[in-house]
Amino acid sequence: MLSTAIAAHAPLRVPIELGDRSYNILIGASLIDDPASYEGLPKGGSALIVTNETVAPLYLARLQARLQARHRQVHSVVLPDGERHKEWGTLQKIFDALLAAGCDRKTVLYALGGGVVGDMTGFAAACFMRGVAFVQVPTTLLAQVDSSVGGKTGINHPLGKNMVGAFHQPLRVLCDLDVLRSLPTRELSAGLAEIIKYGPIADMAFFDWIESNIDALRRLDGHALARAVQRSCEIKAAVVSSDEREAGLRAILNFGHTFGHAIEAGMGYGAWLHGEAVGCGMVMAARLSQAVGLVDATLVDRIRRLVERAGLPVVAPVLDAHNNTQRYLELMRLDKKAEGGEIRFVLIDGPGKAVLRAVPDTVVAQVIAQSCQGA
Ligand code: NAD
Ligand code: GLY
């Protein structure tokens, strides 16, 4: 259990305003076990819990126990673990389980796991019988502060990350802070990357706060975690509420992701964690912002130091020993923000403000070279 002070309080609640698809993110200790976490969600019919082989032994029985008190039938499917399994064959296992269990349009899916499980469960919910309800129970820090919120769901394609998917909002997000206790250190750091992201793009006061609290976050201080998850979700909720389908503003949430997705795909999914690639990608995007004259070296250096203090890599990997720049550019042209083959980057346009912009390849090449050398 995290600190008793957190446990004693009612969960924090962050609303996402999306008309008839609005929902709440609940943040607190022991939420999985608390019947109040489920109040107002559908009950009676069947539920399918989707999880993976790592999370199942830790938390599946607890979620099952809660849902059995609400649903006539509670089924589960345990997927293989890992980013490389975020693909068609694994998705098919969810449909197999739904159909084998005789599930119907009233079935509610529960995603119990990190972003991989959450993205696949959401996509399965979007597709099964043309759309059924689902609830996110994120068990990684990254999933609590980012992937479980906002309704982006999907799978990877060998040629590009998250290339096949749908927008499908959950009914609720339950961020149980206690489950973060079992998270490996490397995964915790990966989650910190997505928390750090919110500072430069939206709230420099939050960035200052993270700088002061990074050590507390790394040792899982309950108050610091609750604050970090809450503020991250508030920022994401505000962005998603005003631009659900990424017509414009929502793209800022992809700060560091254009370089990051290239690193993930170029290294082979799973070699670098998503959050690690995003952490390094943010340093590269900050350098690019400096290279085009939007920010000064001080801000770039603060971002680089915080990413490093979070336990994340700041030296970019070489993706191709012979033609590294071309390989990065080729992978980044597959980014969903690219238009007509022109890569568009999320850049920092002064502290706490982001902008989406194309940059000449020559300038991008300089930043890639500088970042791969760790200059
Ligand atoms: P992950 O889902 O692979 O989880 C990381 C590892 O932690 C896995 O091995 C998992 O089994 C394990 N794990 C999960 N919870 C645990 C716990 N409580 N204790 C111990 N081990 C635990 O990775 P992730 O970082 O959570 O998510 C990354 C994925 O999220 C990527 O596929 C990325 O594309 C996606 N993502 C999606 C969005 C979105 O908006 N949909 C946003 C950001 C990232
Ligand atoms: N993680 C980026 C988004 O949700 O838009």
CATH class of the largest domain: Alpha Beta
Count of helical regions = 13
Helix content: 40-55%
- Which structural category fits the helices and strands? alpha/beta
Regions with little confidence, pLDDT below 50 for 5+ residues: none
Describe what you observe in this structure.
The protein has 13 helices and eleven strands. It is an alpha/beta fold and 375 residues long. The chain has two domains: 4-182, Rossmann fold, CATH 3.40.50; 195-372, Dehydroquinate synthase-like - alpha domain (Dehydroquinate synthase-like, alpha domain). The strands form four sheets. Strands 4-3-5-6 form a four-stranded parallel β-sheet, sandwiched between helices. α5 packs parallel to α8 (222-242). The chain is globular and about 60 Å long. The relative contact order is 0.11. The model has no long low-confidence stretch (mean pLDDT 95). Glycine is lined by residues 146, 150, 152, 250, 253-254.
In short:
The protein has 13 helices and 11 strands. It has 375 residues and is of the alpha/beta class.
List its salient traits.
13 helices; globular; alpha/beta; 375 residues; 2 domains; 45% helix; Rossmann fold; three-stranded mixed β-sheet
Q: What layout of secondary structure does this protein have?
A:
Blueprint lengths: L3 H5 L3 E5 L6 E6 L15 E9 L3 H13 L2 E9 L8 H13 L7 E6 L1 H13 L5 E6 L2 H7 L4 E6 L2 E8 L4 E5 L8 H18 L1 H15 L3 H21 L14 H11 L6 H18 L5 H13 L14 H9 L11 E5 L5 E5 L2 H13 L2
Parallel strand pairs: 2-9, 3-4, 3-5, 5-6
Antiparallel strand pairs: 1-2, 7-8, 10-11
Helix pairs in contact: 3-4, 5-6, 5-8, 6-7, 6-8, 6-10, 7-8, 9-10, 9-12, 10-11, 10-13, 12-13
The chain binds nicotinamide-adenine-dinucleotide and glycine.
